[in-house]
Amino acid sequence: SRLPAPGSSSPCTCRRGSGTRGPGPEPAFFPRNSASSQAFIGPKASNSGTRKSLRCRHPLSLNIRRHPHFRGLFNLSTPVLLSWPLFTQELWDSLSQHKAPYGWQGLSRQAITSTLRLLNGSESTELFTGSREPRPHCIRCAVVGNGGILNGSRQGRNIDAHDYVFRLNGAVIKGFEDDVGTKTSFYGFTVNTMKNSLISYWTLGFTSVPQGQDLHYIFIPSDIRDYVMLRSAILGVRVPEGPDKGDRPWTYFGPEASASKFKLLHPDFISYLTERFLKSKLINTTFGDLYMPSTGALMLLTALHTCDQVSAYGFITRNYWKFSDHYFERIKKPLIFYANHDLSLEATLWRDLHKAGILWLYQR
Ligand SMILES: *[C@@H]1O[C@H](CO)[C@@H](O)[C@H](O)[C@H]1NC(C)=O
Ligand SMILES: *[C@@H]1O[C@H](CO)[C@@H](O)[C@H](O)[C@H]1NC(C)=O
Ligand SMILES: *[C@@H]1O[C@H](CO)[C@@H](O)[C@H](O)[C@H]1NC(C)=O
Ligand SMILES: *[C@@H]1O[C@H](CO)[C@@H](O)[C@H](O)[C@H]1NC(C)=O
């Protein structure tokens, strides 16, 4: 069982009160005055713990329902992933009206359908399938952004104690295990951000994307490139066309070429997130067409729509200026605010979701 023993340094206990770093206000989903994980995860669990008996006492859905603002934004029934069973003429017509990442305007129908056709199994419609049986009743997820706040954080064990760990882009692990952990269940990216991360952070240790048997990849469809790479990865062939022509997907994702290894975010889900949670003023500027939520934001919001409890590590906080852009930099670099993302808006969202007890944001 991966359930931490009561009183151990599970993320659900040590981050509360007893933590050495700025305790701050308690997240609303933790019962006050409780000092052990028992209060959080339910009845006393033996170390050999049968997960089956454990329930989620404080699912984030409860705090969403109780919140006057967020209950109007979240729709936990919105499909998160796109797979072949969802493809219809109606979907084609509707998504053809929107540019990527929100749709397929200007993209070849053949390129889209030849990719989606491969996503025809149950593992393509759901994030949590397959290897983990029985499915935990309370799915606890950590989403690990790459923010400098993680440098020296010693949060690795807490991160790894979650059922699933999401990482993204230049997620350097080697050499930073104590701070960021080692477990990766999902790696999220666009082909553009993945390849840029390999180029930009190679000398800082990001020499390959995380790989592993229990690891799944979440493609963000920001361009036709993503569909073409996804198809090639599933088929185990070189990329046949476009800017990535000749790329060997297995050099990125490892030798296992199968549809169950790869997930695709639904363009409608990205629209829904942008519209409801991250509707930036940048949309009305010259950069409007470039704007989209950051990869980290998309992964954190994906987790919020699929997990029962979510902890966010390495995401932007109010005091971001104290930390380097990324945890793996050797010399402190200020955080860069690119025109295609709205990190201020994202920072406000994480702060408000934390206050509402819908997620727990690592801060120091
Ligand atoms: C939530 O999303 C589902 C699936 O897209 C939709 O059928 C439903 O009407 C939505 N609910 C609300 C309240 O918008
Ligand atoms: C997808 O799966 C369904 C149900 O198993 C099957 O009827 C259909 O032929 C499959 N489609 C493709 C394109 O493989
Ligand atoms: C963009 O401008 C339009 C028209 O002025 C306005 O209605 C809309 O609210 C603006 N959107 C954002 C996100 O600021
Ligand atoms: C990382 O943290 C150490 C101390 O914990 C500090 O000396 C170093 O400057 C930090 N690195 C960056 C890039 O901020």
UniProtKB/TrEMBL annotation:
It is a single-pass type II membrane protein. One of its GO terms (biological process) is protein O-linked glycosylation. Its main location: Golgi. Residues 1-27 are annotated as: Disordered. Pathway: Protein modification; protein glycosylation. InterPro entries: Glyco_trans_29, GT29-like_sf, Sialyl_trans. Transmembrane segments: none annotated. The keyword Transferase applies. Pfam families: Glyco_transf_29 (PF00777). GO terms for molecular function: alpha-N-acetylgalactosaminide alpha-2,6-sialyltransferase activity. GO terms for cellular component: Golgi membrane. It comes from the Eukaryota. Its EC number is 2.4.3.3. Keywords: Disulfide bond, Glycoprotein, Glycosyltransferase, Golgi apparatus, Membrane, Signal-anchor, Transferase, Transmembrane, Transmembrane helix. This is alpha-N-acetylgalactosaminide alpha-2,6-sialyltransferase. It comes from Equus asinus (Donkey).
